[in-house]
Automatic annotation (TrEMBL):
Its main location: membrane. Residues 27-197 form the Spore germination protein N-terminal domain. Residues 220-385 form the Spore germination GerAC-like C-terminal domain. Keywords: Germination, Lipoprotein, Membrane, Palmitate, Signal. It is a lipid-anchor. It comes from Paenibacillus mellifer. This is Ger(X)C family spore germination protein. The lineage of its organism: Bacteria, Bacillati, Bacillota, Bacilli, Bacillales. Transmembrane segments: none annotated.
Length: 397
């Protein structure tokens, strides 16, 4: 290496080091920004748009900053709400009241109320896509009633609301439906599933703080047809099945009645794999949903003999039949709602684009009333646990 080459390499390395310690790229200081992590959107009874932003409060998140010493007092976040004719106007009203500039760069959660969901999310998606800093990977949720009901939820396990909802998604408790997913679904007809939240009263918590008396949890799923929320919904159990069909379920538990004595048996299901494939035979189109998984006995109150290979095969057949029936039940609900919620049209477009384009205009009716769907589930019972017979019955002998 010549002297000139060494000089060029040295100058390049020094330049790269300066880049790494150069501080913020933006001309705006971090202390002048309000980083929104949760957005709540709904319609009021008089048709106005209600926008709520959830913003962390840095002065309450660091010990010693709120009162000088000790732990910070009060919630480490705040919600700001404004109503206007549209989302842009509501955002402007919120910005006027805040001492910091709003930034959507850290927004991970968008929660929409039922009234807005039934009208459709087109305006919501349009608003998000126009914000350069907004992440299209932000997850969508629907509330069964007014969206602001979520602000009454006490923060027990996490300090910030968005952290709870993100863990619902990351732990595969709810469907991961993003803004991008919804936008893509609109191109295929606006059919998709979006997770629902549920709320329950907590009298004990209300005694301590009347404003925080609503326990929040993952619920069922809203079925969208043509970009609008349908009247038909999936229950929490059906939501779990939808996760399974969508290949988003990591593990679950299935309880059945023992074939020998009708006693309860529970199985832990893991290693779930599901595929959705179009099948074309001549001029006939159908779909095959095939799923495989592994299972082991989690609990058993039955006298059944788990050493018998025929018994194990019988249990596998019962598990397969139960899951297949659940698959068909969820698919039937989407058909009733006239919603290709699992976006089978995309699979058809990918595999057989000519067939898809020839029946695109009649796809909704075809899916709802005519499309044959074959469900094939194969669960292997690999482990029976540390004992072959129920411990309860063994100890009661």
């Amino acid at each position: 290496m010549t002297r000139n080459h060494r000089a060029i390499v040295t100058a390049t390395l020094v330049f790269l080091l300066f880049i790494g310690v150069g501080g913020c790229w933006s001309a705006e200081e971090l202390n002048n920004r309000a980083f929104v992590n949760t957005v709540l959107i709904d319609l009021t009874e008089d048709g106005q748009t209600e926008l709520t932003v959830g913003v962390p409060l840095p002065n309450r998140m660091i010990p010693g900053q709120a009162g000088g010493t000790g732990q910070p007092q009060g919630d480490p976040f705040s919600f700001v709400t404004k109503r206007a004719d549209n989302l842009s106007q509501a955002l402007n009203l919120i910005q006027v009241d805040l001492p910091r500039d709003i930034s959507f760069g850290q927004t991970r959660i968008i929660v929409v109320g039922r009234r807005q969901a039934e009208q459709g999310l087109d305006k919501v998606v349009e608003f998000v896509f126009r914000q350069p800093s907004f992440r299209l990977s932000a997850s969508l949720f629907i509330t069964p009633r007014n969206v602001k009901e979520i602000t009454r939820s006490p923060m027990v396990f996490e300090r910030i609301l968005s952290d709870i909802l993100r863990k619902y998604v990351n732990n595969h408790y709810t469907l991961d439906t993003t803004v991008k997913d919804y936008k893509l679904a609109l191109y295929q007809g606006g059919d998709i599933l979006i997770p629902l939240l549920n709320f329950g009263e907590l009298p004990g918590v209300a005694m301590e703080d009347p404003k925080k008396n609503r326990w929040m949890g993952s619920g069922g799923a809203a079925i969208f047809s043509g970009g609008k929320m349908a009247k038909i919904e999936l229950s929490p159990t059906e939501h779990r099945t939808a996760l399974w069909i969508s290949s988003q379920l990591k593990n679950t538990t299935i309880t059945i009645a023992s074939p020998s004595d009708e006693k309860e048996m529970s199985f832990f299901i893991e290693g779930i794999k599901t595929s959705i494939d179009p099948v074309v035979r001549g001029d006939q189109l159908s779909f095959r949903i095939k799923s495989s998984a592994k299972a082991f006995v989690e609990t058993s109150l039955s006298y059944i003999d788990l050493k018998d290979p025929e018994v194990l095969q019988q249990l596998e057949e019962i598990l397969n039949k139960k899951v297949e029936e659940e698959f068909i039940g969820v698919l039937d609900k989407t058909r009733q709602a006239r919603s290709d919620a699992f976006i089978m049209s995309q699979y058809l477009d990918w595999r057989y684009p000519k067939i898809w384009h020839s029946m695109r205009d009649q796809w909704k009716n075809f899916y709802a009333k005519e499309l044959p769907i074959e469900v094939d589930v194969e669960i292997q019972l690999n482990r029976t646990g540390g004992v072959y017979r129920s411990v309860v019955h063994e100890t009661n002998r």
